[in-house]
Amino acid sequence: MPSQRTEVQVRPGVEGDLEALTALYNHYVRETAITFDTAIFTPEERRPWLLSHPEDGPHRLMVATTANPQEILGYSTSSPLRTKPAYATSVETTVYVAPEAGRRGVGTLLYTALFEALSGEDLHRAYAGIALPNEASARLHERFGFRHVGTYREVGRKFGRYWDVAWYEKPL
To answer: How high is the mean pLDDT of the chain?
Structure first.
């Protein structure tokens, strides 16, 4: 586990990150209701997701790593909100931080880099869905100017129960 003083670098995600990013995401699939995926992925199954986030454009993947040796501490993405053309200036954003890297500012670094990268894009709004309860994610989003706009009640079923999702919105 990296020490508190380990320097964290944030950069665009690349093909070589696929295995580590898949393992990180699978932790949240197996252990939490933060994602509503219910079956783990192989790296090959996750490859289309990685490739849908190029180094430029409105749909990005930013990765936080330690310097040496390089270890992935988390990632953030901006993805299409919906597929219909009129939604093109809206993105859904998300952050996943490795459990051992929590409460170290990694999520803040990731969102800072993501929103800097998106600043030159033709985007109007960012949205984020937060499965409840998740106070840390709500605080992170509010720090970045997101405001709660509504909650879908019992919208997802995982681990034998229903979960609410709070939706947040941020002007870009």
So the answer is: 94
